[in-house]
Design brief:
By secondary structure, this protein is mainly α. The chain is built from 2 helices and 2 strands; from the N terminus they run ααββ. It has a two-stranded antiparallel sheet. A hairpin with a 5-residue loop joins β1 (71-73) and β2. The chain is globular, with a radius of gyration of 15 Å.
């Protein structure tokens, strides 16, 4: 029987994070990005313990370090990392 997946989750990724996701997906011959994300989520939940403190922002969590400036808007309106 197929899993019931009634909740949709939108996640914004940097180009580097997307490349890492696609590398994982293709290395493990996974059919979709969604399948790769579910597998990485399962793996991460089985090993990681993260204690987010007060004042921690969503942008503080990521695969790659962005430095103190984080994302900045480019002239064409898209985000770019420094």
């Amino acid at each position: 029987m197929r899993d019931a997946r009634g909740e949709r989750l939108q996640v914004m990724l940097s180009p580097e994070e997307l490349a890492a996701l696609d590398d994982f997906r293709f290395k493990h011959r996974m059919p979709t990005r969604a399948a790769a994300i579910r597998e990485l989520l399962k793996l991460g939940l089985s090993v990681a313990v993260v204690d987010g403190g007060a004042g921690v922002k969503s942008s503080d969590y990521g695969v790659f370090s962005r430095g103190p400036e984080g994302h900045k808007q480019s002239n064409n309106g898209s985000e770019e990392a420094e």
